[in-house]
Amino acid sequence: MPRTVSIRHKKSTSETCETIGIHPERISKVFSKMPDSSSLFELSDMFKLFGDNTRIRILWALSESEMCVCDLCALLEMKQPAVSHQLKNLKQARIVKTRREGKVIYYSLDDEHIRSLLNLGMEHIQEL
């Protein structure tokens, strides 16, 4: 037996449409510029890495200078295994890169895009 569904009109807010309908031209325009799902998935994963205070602190430090694990541990007042674990994750995501000098491995941001993301994010929160 089919159920009867009653439709209640909600008070309109900025998050809801007042009318029912779509805008095909707008949808088509956005769809044509939408990256493929795998690219958006990778972007989502990258932004997840920015969602951790420890990783952000490491990235901010590396935006100022390349550093070895020991330097980062001293700066951030953290134990070496914790810093190394985060650096491994950041390196796997190609957000940081390494350079070896003798026995010392130096970490730095992979490219200027990462520095730009950090700076844009800081500008955004300082506007609030």
Give a quick set of tags describing it:
128 residues; 3 strands; Arc Repressor Mutant, subunit A; mainly alpha; single chain
Structure, explained:
The structure is a single chain. The protein has one domain: Winged helix-like DNA-binding domain superfamily/Winged helix DNA-binding domain (Arc Repressor Mutant, subunit A, Orthogonal Bundle). The protein is mainly alpha-helical and 128 residues long. The longest helix has 16 residues. Strands 1-3-2 form a 3-stranded antiparallel sheet. The radius of gyration is 23 Å and the shape is elongated. The protein starts with 23 loop residues before the first helix and ends with a helix. A hairpin with a 2-residue loop joins strand 2 and strand 3.
Mean pLDDT reading? 89
Largest sheet: 3 strands, antiparallel
Biggest sheet strand order reads 1-3-2
Number of helices: 6
List the helices and strands and how they pair.
Blueprint: H1 24-33, H2 37-49, H3 53-64, E1 67-68, H4 69-76, H5 80-92, E2 96-101, E3 104-109, H6 112-127
Antiparallel strand pairs: 1-3, 2-3
Overview in brief:
The chain contains 6 helices and 3 strands.
